[in-house]
Amino acid sequence: MGAAGRRVLRAGLALGALALVLQGLRGWLASKRYEFTPAEIAQLARHHAGLDHELAFSKIIVELRKKHPGHILPDEDLQWVFVNAGGWMGSMCLLHASLTEYVLLFGTAVDTGGHSGRYWADISDTVISGTFRQWKEGTTRSEIYYPGDTIVHQAGEATSVQWSAGTWMVEYGRGFIPSTLAFALADTLFSTQDFITLFYTLRVYAKGLLLEANAFFSTLGC
Length: 222
Prior knowledge:
By secondary structure, this protein is an alpha+beta fold. It has helices at 3-31, 38-48, 53-67, 181-192, 195-219; strands spanning 80-85, 88-97, 101-108, 112-115, 121-129, 132-136, 142-145, 150-153, 159-163, 167-175. The chain starts with a helix and ends with a helix.
């Protein structure tokens, strides 16, 4: 076998291994138990939609801590962090994070818009205040969402997104969450080069992972 043949064989083996890993990951995501459900988060957010967003967020955090003790970051770890991605700019406050789920508060104080990104995760957002406009791939019309509405972004989808100033929402993601970081951090790495924000983002995600690890080992009696 020549050098070209060996390269083709190695490439084929690598692709085969990748396919097995992806299939295993898909099976794991389909069979595992999740802490939250999209319907639960959407219903909780809708209950407080229309309130001042800061008041709504404080009530939502209290209720989540009651329903999911040990799975919501403590107050000292809650931090509003800028997000630059797909040409838009917003701010997030992460409440819960694991390898397969996250819950966060998100919004913007200024008009902004851009590309949604494509993810290996299903993401749903429920509007607390303001308006959100979405233009789905393959269509010629956009839709506007108002307080109380829930927007579902399925894995693999891409849309154009636009937030009006003062739009705030509650977001729940389920899937292989580390895969979303490439899009979420790309503009920070290659455009704004705001490495302090990069540090804040990675730090709070690490805190979420540590909290979940602690909760997991606590259930085992460790």
